[in-house]
Amino acid sequence: MVNIDFLAQKPDALRADVTTPIGAHVISFAQQGKKMSYVIPQRKSYYSGALSNQAFSELISHSFDTTLLLHVLYDQPITKKGWACKNDIKNLIESCVNKSQGLTIEWSQRRGVEKTVEITHAAFELQFQFHAFKEKSEFKQNTFEIPAPQNYKKL
Predict the structure, then answer these.
(1) 82 SS3 class
(2) Domain ranges of the chain
(3) Higher pLDDT, 59 or 116
(4) Which residues contact 118 (CB under 8 A, 6 or more apart)?
(5) Mean pLDDT of the 104-113 span
(6) H helix runs in 37-94, sequence order
(7) To which CATH superfamily is domain 3-154 assigned?
């Protein structure tokens, strides 16, 4: 279990800072447009380069399209090729499935801004419990960039 602070800006900017429940820094990840960067302090390693599903595999040992997280945060159906989504009776996004990738995303337990989202694949499962979300339109210029720390190994 980890805590994740997300910052996002439509259409394609995302930052996630991950810590343990006792406050240890696990990873900081950012993407904007077609670029991504992340730093893993425990491994003293970082990545900075093109946004790619494979680059994220360092983090969860499987390739993953991080742009899907924007759909999760903003409760939006995934319109990319191969995805089929459905809404619940309140017309809120309920699930999206990509059979060829073996990937399912399910939104559940909605109570106001609180919700649970599960991303399931044969190789991994991620469960997010959101307790608050506030849209913000202004960020610092470098919010969606993670600078390379000195003495860290480039991945």
Answers:
(1) coil
(2) 3-154
(3) 116
(4) 104, 105, 106, 108, 125, 126, 127, 128
(5) 93
(6) 57-60, 68-73
(7) Lipoprotein localisation LolA/LolB/LppX (2.50.20.10)
